[in-house]
Every structure is written in structure tokens, then in C-alpha cells.
Amino acid sequence: MTVTPFNPRALLAESRLGVLATIKADGRPQLSPVQPFYDQRSNILYVSTNEGLAKTANLRRDPRAALEVTSADGLSWATAEGTVTLTGPGTDRHGPEVEALVDYYRAAAGEHPDWDEYRSVMVNDRRMLITMPVDRVYGATIG
């Protein structure tokens, strides 16, 4: 019997649901469910979010963050830590802020059926991109 060692980076890459932890002004953690995309080659984690949320205010004040994901069966987990950069929101559908969201979408999901619509929604919804080069990854599996 061959046992494959647990790879927390692989779990990060396959997970599309996680919990992002940011730091509130009083030092307590603020947790947000998010849909992350982790690019193993570049070791960068991406999350699309909206302007005006607690996580964006927290990250502007203190850019340190952690993201935790679990396997579908709940028996494995992985946590990534790093310092984020916020991009956006953009006001120009073809500006660099929206282009960053287009690049993110392409990497995470492929081609969009209507890029004009996507770009308009990104501007209208005041979407932002959280980019986190991963400094540390750890995790475990049960069994």
C-alpha cells in the first residue's frame, strides 16, 4: 500500500471555499467566508471582494491575513498566511483594476461568456481583488 503524503498547497489549490481571517481595530480576528483561488506556480492567493466590507477596511489598516480551507470530507485542512495587496475598485471598465479582476477570473474559471457584462458588473459592484503572496502554509489530515 502506497501512502501519498499530505500536501496542504494542493488542498489550497483545489478548494473554492474558505474562511479569510483579518484583524479588527481592537485586535480580534474577523472571519469572512470567501471563494479563493490559489495559484501554486506563483504561490499567490486571490480573492475577489467588494469595497466597503469589514475585511477590506481591516486589510487597509493591517494587511496581514490568513485563509483556511478544508477538504470536502472535513478530514484535511490547510492554512495560508501572508500580507495582502488590495487592487480596486475600478471606475474604468478597461482600467488596470478591472483588468486585474479579468486576469483573476481567467486563471480561476477560464473564459467568461460575456466580458463586457463582467467588466460592467465589476465596476458597478465596486469589486476589488485581494492578492496575497503566501508566506507560510501549514495543515494536516486525519487518518
From TrEMBL:
Record-linked InterPro entries: F420-binding_dom_put, F420H2_bilvrd_red/Heme_oxyg, Pyridox_Oxase_N, Split_barrel_FMN-bd
Keywords recorded for this protein, A-Z: Oxidoreductase
Record domain Pyridoxamine 5'-phosphate oxidase N-terminal: where: 9-122
Highest taxon of source: Bacteria
GO molecular function: coenzyme F420 binding; oxidoreductase activity, acting on the CH-CH group of donors
One GO CC term, this protein: cytosol
Stated name of the protein: F420-dependent protein
Species of provenance: Streptomyces marincola
